[in-house]
Amino acid sequence: TIDEQREQLELIFRDSPSLKPYLADIFAECYQKAVRGTVNETNLPKETFPVDCPFTQEQVLNCDYFPENSF
Among 23, 50, 57, 64, which has the minimal tally of Cβ within 10 Å of its Cβ? Predict the structure, then answer.
């Protein structure tokens, strides 16, 4: 789930703060992998999803942020 993954990332970054800058380098790649996985799981067409991640890194990591049809 989104909450679980955010908590896992929070723990990882707390244990290894040097990894956080690396997120900027792989953020777009992670989004593409997430879209691919979602397409495989849901059978929705890839075109259902924005080409680029519609959320900032800060939003993705913020445990209090959950968009409601924001794209």
Answer: 64
Longest dimension (CA), the chain: 37
Q: What is the pTM of this model?
A: 0.79
User: Which three-class secondary structure state does DSSP give residue 34?
Assistant: helix
Residue for token digits 């445990």?
A: 63
Report how far residue 9's alpha carbon sits from residue 27's, in angstroms, rounded to the nearest whole number: 13
Provide the 3-class DSSP secondary structure of residue 55. Answer: coil
* Block mean pLDDT (10 aa), the chain, length 71: 92 94 94 96 96 95 82 53
User: At 66, is the secondary structure helix, strand, or coil?
Assistant: coil
Structure tokens at 65: 């942020």
